[in-house]
Amino acid sequence: MKFEKVKDGIQMKYEVMENHQQLRKTVRKFVQKEIVPNIEEWEKNGFPNEIFRKMGQMGLFGVRYPEEYGGSNMDYFAAMTVTEEIASSGCAGLGMAFNVQALMATNPILKFGTEEQKQNYLAPSIAGEKIAALGITEPSAGSDVAGLRTTATKTDGGWIINGSKVFITNGIRADYQILIAKTGEKNGRPLFSIFLVDSNLEGYTVGRKLEKVGMHASDTAEIFLENVFVPDSALLGKEGEGFKQLMWQLNGERLIQATACVAGAQRCLDLAVQYAKEREQFGRSLSKNQVLRHYLAEMNTEVEAARALLYNTAAHYDKGEVLVKEISMAKLLASKVYYEVADKALQIHGGYGYMNEYPISREWRDARLMRIGGGTDEVQKEIIAKEMDL
User: Fold this and answer.
1) Which pLDDT score, from 0 to 100, does residue 294 have?
2) What is the maximum alpha-carbon separation in the chain?
């Protein structure tokens, strides 16, 4: 890994080998052509499925996956590079949807799936031909996984699933879900299993599209399952191993969320610096005001601290190390920095920052979710404390 100073000293970028630099240039070009011109429209009406197909054709979903399933077989930093560039577009809703497809929902298929499941779900997802969703959170249980009420009951040739899911990213458009359900008990404790559930099955109903504070470009839905039959081949991994599989999946989810947060924070900082240099008050630019200069200095420091922790953690994660505490730390810090930098950047914009026509207002709204999704700040602190033997 090398450290390369860019621009005029405002930020430090961490580049990893020449192929990552070329990948960054390619994705950035794609973002500027296919995403940036459409953001305002997508914020109003949601992004079209066609953008997923274009991302698939570009190979953006598969940079970390094996070539036999349509991937490029690159390292974790390649996946982070793609996430950073999409997050930097200013359309966090699309970025969230992309990450669910690229790493959160499909990664368990690669690790736990059969060859048939990989061919039927992973390969078409990498190609952008199928859209995936994660079916975890329920109306009565989010962070408390043990409280999940959706059940899967064994029957001849398969399972009958009953229950509901909520806050499901890509839920309206998904072709299938990676869904966790209770499948029994052992010693008085619930056992869970994970299933691949197609959205066109009888009894699978997509509820309303949920109205959110931010992330307007993406769809978030509630899902109802009433006597949904799935065959034995829908079971992902081993029966009763769902909780372990979910904890493994959440580690990867939190790390890529931290990546998006750092990229989002950098964008907020860039917007604030640009505005401070261009906006004049009392006969001079805002950047000459000591209070605002110190704001920007603190923001820059916070972003670089979060980036350093993220990249150090990712370097070890890429080697296959188990980093429960460090990933939770990276997610906690990055999501807080993203929101706090967005808030300060909006403050620097003054009244204009509160206007929808200024992109910082969207960043401010979008940033708030990141301290909730993938496990709240409080959940991350509990994980860290537990790993500290507290």
Assistant:
1) 94
2) 79
